[in-house]
Amino acid sequence: MFNTILVYLDGSTASEQVLPYAADIGQRCESRIVLLRVLLPAPSYYGAGADGIEVAETFRRSHVHDYLDDVGKPLRKNGLVVETVCIEGSPAPSIVAYAANNGMNLIAIATYTSRQYIGRMVFGSVAHYVLRNTTLPVLTIKPR
């Protein structure tokens, strides 16, 4: 049923609370789990100091890949096939596009309901955008 599950992680412990649910579904359906992190584009600077920006960007990407690998270790120990992906873009549309273009069958994402209403109006909600803009099933988990 769900051959490939996309799990969006933003680096927070709240976003990781979706992992046990995705892992349970993954084990039952013998699914491949794709852990996805979307990085906002790094600012482009030209001229003096550009090399420093490039070094910082390389470090940032390396840190994200290490984070995703660490999060995936317990899943792998439980027999799941786990892939990690880091892409650049705006999180919400990037999740929807990645899922649509890479054969995902389910998107798993934590919802952040602790934000004040005005904060959601100004910043939007990644989970809400995904729910509105994908044709795939979406598993949402409210972090504790």
Considering DSSP H and I runs of 4 or more, what fraction of the residues is helical?
A: 40-55%
What is the CATH level 1 assignment? Alpha Beta
First-to-last CA distance: 28 Å
The CATH topology annotation reads as Rossmann fold
Briefly note the structural class of the backbone. Answer: alpha/beta
- Count of distinct structural domains: 1
Tell me, briefly, the overall form. Answer: globular
Biggest sheet, open or closed, and with what strands and sense? 5 strands, parallel
The CATH architecture category equals: 3-Layer(aba) Sandwich
What's the SSE pattern? EHHEHEHEHHE
- Going across the biggest sheet, name each strand in turn: 3-2-1-4-5
Kindly estimate the percentage of residues that lie in beta strands according to DSSP.
15-25%
Total number of β-strand segments? 5
Helix count from the secondary structure assignment: 6
Query: Low-confidence stretches at least 5 residues in length (pLDDT < 50)?
Result: 118-123
Report the average pLDDT across residues.
86
Q: Summarize this, please?
A:
The protein is of the alpha/beta class and 144 residues long. It has helices at 13-16, 19-29, 50-77, 91-101, 117-123, 126-133, and strands spanning 4-8, 32-39, 81-88, 106-110, 138-141.
Q: Can you walk through the features of this model?
A:
The chain is α/β, with parallel strands linked by helices and 144 residues long. The protein has one domain (4-141): HUPs (Rossmann fold), CATH 3.40.50. It contains six helices and five strands; from the N terminus they run E-H-H-E-H-E-H-E-H-H-E. The chain has helices at 13-16, 19-29, 50-77, 91-101, 117-123, 126-133, and strands at residues 4-8, 32-39, 81-88, 106-110, 138-141. A five-stranded parallel beta sheet has the order 3-2-1-4-5, sandwiched between helices. Helix 4 packs parallel to helix 6. The radius of gyration is 16 Å and the shape is globular. The chain starts with a strand and ends with a strand.
